[in-house]
Amino acid sequence: MSELRQDRTTGRWVIIAPRRGTRPGGKLETQRRAHDVAHDRASCPFCPGHEAELPGIVAETPAAGAPGWSVRVVPNKFPALQPQATLEAPSSDDHRTRAGRGIHEVVIESPRHDADLASMTAPERLAVVSMYRQRSRELLAQDGIETVVLFRNRGSRAGASQDHPHAQIVALDLVPPRLTALIETGLRHFQREGRCATCAELDVDRHDGRRVVEDSAHFVALVAFAAEHPFELWIVPKRHRASFTDIDDGELGDLGEILGRSLRRLSAALNDPSYRLVVDSAPKSGIAAPHLHWRLRIVPETVAWGGFELGAEMAINPSRPEDDAAALRAARAGDDEKA
Ligand SMILES: [Zn+2]
Ligand SMILES: [Zn+2]
After folding, report:
1. What are the CA-CA distances from residue 152 to residues 48, 155, 274, 279 (Å)?
2. Alpha helix positions (H), 276-320
3. d(CA 181, CA 159)
4. How many CB atoms neighbour CB 261 within 10 A?
5. Band of residue 339 on the pLDDT scale cut at 50, 70, 90
6. What does residue 245 show for φ and ψ, rounded to 5 degrees?
7. Residue 143 CB-density burial (10 A; 0-12 exposed, 13-18 middle, 19+ buried)
8. I need a surface site. Which of 90, 134, 228, 308 has the fewest CB within 10 A?
């Protein structure tokens, strides 16, 4: 039986249609592993020794107790946006063009080409999430920057062009549409109910329990009530904060651990899927908003969106969030690599 569900944080509706997964060709595509990007270390610009191929180094975390580095941030060699961009032909009669101004960086998460965010050592992963925070803070503080979008594409099906573990950060001089919708929906919920929609959702989900995958000191990992994609996993801070940049040291350590366990559960449940990861976080103008609550979302690449989604901007999820969460709870969380 199909069911329509609304995400109270985005206002978006989704069709949960589990039986579609049983139609011919409708099985979740979970058998293809993420590691199908070219493995060629010799030509990998992110490996140590290939610094000449990098446009520069923006920030670096030294390796603990050893020479070299553990995390490094570089400008994207093929940036989507540039700090000094100007319009070649300024529009005269409307406001529908603007310069592609912004900053696009790459966080190289390890000097090891075959390291994996899911299984690297706990101190290595802590260095990675610390750098996520550091660059997010530094970029958001820059003049003219309004929003920082931190994301990670793993595997070729998620659009990754490099196998070497890395994340990306795009800093924009505007608030993108999805975040605008999140803010507007959050504000309406806050005005109506007197509290943050995500805080309310967390209470419901933790009381219900069926969609919760992990519950740690500072975070809950859950499959969203109205998930648009099978196995869409959210890692949500228990403490209300609008911006990821406000995460404190205790939360950061806990985030590294719950992120590792969540990724390992996804890998075990879906056979090492390609995935996209993104942090939803407040723009500069909403950094203290009581109606906005940051979170990290992981979307495994399972089913491609078709014409209905294109036309209706409404997802058909062939998988019940409660079933996905149960599968993730049953999957092995495994252990970090030992240092
Ligand atoms: Zn490499
Ligand atoms: Zn909240």
Report:
1. 21, 10, 11, 9
2. 307-312
3. 25
4. 20
5. confident
6. -65, -15
7. exposed
8. 90
Q: Give 235-238's long-range contacts (Cβ < 8 A, gap of 24+).
A: 235/259, 235/262, 235/295, 235/296, 235/297, 235/298, 236/198, 236/202, 236/293, 236/295, 236/296, 237/293, 237/294, 237/295, 238/202
- Dist. CA 204–CA 223, nearest whole Å: 13
pLDDT at 229: 95
User: What is the Cα–Cα distance from 248 to 252, expressed in whole angstroms?
Assistant: 6
50 carries an active-site annotation: no
* Protein residues near ligand 2, an ion, with CB under 5 A: 196, 198-199, 240, 293
- Of residues 35, 113, 164, 166, which has the active-site annotation? 166
Block residue for tokens 């939360």:
251
Report the pLDDT value the prediction gives residue 95, as an integer from 0 to 100: 67
Residue 47 CA to residue 167 CA, distance in Å, equals 15
Lowest mean pLDDT among 18-27, 74-83, 284-293, 294-303: 18-27
What is the DSSP pairing of strand 3-6 with strand 13-16? antiparallel
Closest listed residue to residue 300, CA positions, set 172, 196, 164, 155: 155
* Rg from Cα positions in the chain: 20
Q: In this structure, what DSSP letter does residue 337 have?
A: P
Tell me what the pLDDT averaged over the chain comes to.
Answer: 90
CA 253 to ligand 1 centroid distance, Å: 26
Look at the pTM and tell me if it is higher than 0.70. Answer: yes
Q: What is the model's pLDDT at position 84?
A: 81
Rounded Cα gap, residues 259 and 236, in angstroms: 11
Q: Which ligand is nearest to the CA of 238?
A: 2
First to last CA, the chain: 48
* Ligand 1 centroid, distance to 133 Cα (angstroms): 23
Query: What are the Cα distances from residue 185, in Å, to 146, 205, 208, 316?
Result: 19, 19, 23, 21
Ligand nearest to the CA of 44: 1
Q: What is the pLDDT of residue 32?
A: 46
